[in-house]
Amino acid sequence: MFTEFSKKLFEIHIEELSSWEKRPHKHNFFEIVYVDKGSGFQCINQHEFEYKEGNIFLLPPLDCHSFKINEPSRFYFVRFTDNFFLKDDGLTNYNEWFDKIAYITANYNKVPGDIIPTERERNFIIDNIKSIYQEYLASDNYSDSIIAGSVASILNILARSIEKRYVDQANETDNRFGEILRFINTNIFNSDKLRVPFLADKFGISKSYFSQYFKKQAGVSLADYIIKSKLRIVETKVLHTDLSLKEIAFQLNFTDSSHLSKSFKKVYGMTVKQFKNSGQVSCA
């Protein structure tokens, strides 16, 4: 197993391949993969699923991946590090952008395959990827801002697709519950909006019954669900940023870094440091 590193904040390139010569590997950057032609299998974290022309995948850093190519394939690889969002240009809000990334990776099933729900959204993403490629080649004074806007659009489509998936699943048992989960996950940084009185009023459920209702639908208590949702974002921030534990605890409204550490160990059975050193998934 090896980790592929990129020294660039952003790059996009096209590869035409009839076989995959690389070993399964990880990398230190985020990668959006668009399959322009061909078919085969993509392997992520030791799971395989089929790919074909038109598929779009997201690979977070440190996920182990490789391809098995059946038909000659042409891929667009869009690669960017978290520091791509850290620009002193007055146009980019790093925290907002990275929180979007954290939201996507926290809620993105580790063996998802293609998650784009409609052809309209798929065509939108494909057009943006091809436009990004042309701007990357042109590289004039406007290109960086145009590329950043296109990447932001793609990330928002991915976030919406992920959100729709778990909302629809939750709505299968109760048509309010999916909206409750959507609200909790999109307001995970705002503790005031996650309290029972606020949620009960917003969704028209008795305050005395809300906790029972939530546990019946989710299978876990509201408090446990919120903690686990926050800890999925902690995973992303621990692995992919240089933020201290104290800073992460503050962002996610833990009492302090000690409270975050204890919560993490209780759920994951290891310390935050052990988790970070484990490097997530083995490619063996």
Describe this structure in words.
49% of the residues lie in helices and 19% in strands. The protein is α+β, with helices and mostly antiparallel strands and 284 residues long. Strands 2, 4, 5, 6 and 7 form a five-stranded antiparallel β-sheet that branches. It has a two-stranded parallel ribbon with strand order 1-3. Strand 4 and strand 5 form a beta hairpin.
In short:
The protein contains 10 helices and 7 strands. The chain is 49% helix and 19% strand.
Number of strands: 7
Percent of residues in β-strands: 15-25%
Q: How many distinct helices?
A: 10
Shape: globular
Low-confidence stretches: 1-7
The secondary-structure element order is: EEEEEEEHHHHHHHHHH
- In round numbers, the mean pLDDT is 81
Q: For the CA atoms, what is the radius of gyration?
A: 20 Å
Keywords:
7 strands; alpha+beta; five-stranded antiparallel sheet; disordered N terminus; two-stranded parallel sheet; 284 residues
Describe the secondary structure blueprint for this structure.
Layout: E1 2-4, E2 10-17, E3 25-27, E4 30-44, E5 47-52, E6 56-59, E7 65-80, H1 94-107, H2 119-138, H3 143-171, H4 177-186, H5 196-203, H6 207-218, H7 222-240, H8 245-251, H9 257-268, H10 272-278
Parallel strand pairs: 1-3
Antiparallel strand pairs: 2-7, 4-5, 4-6, 4-7
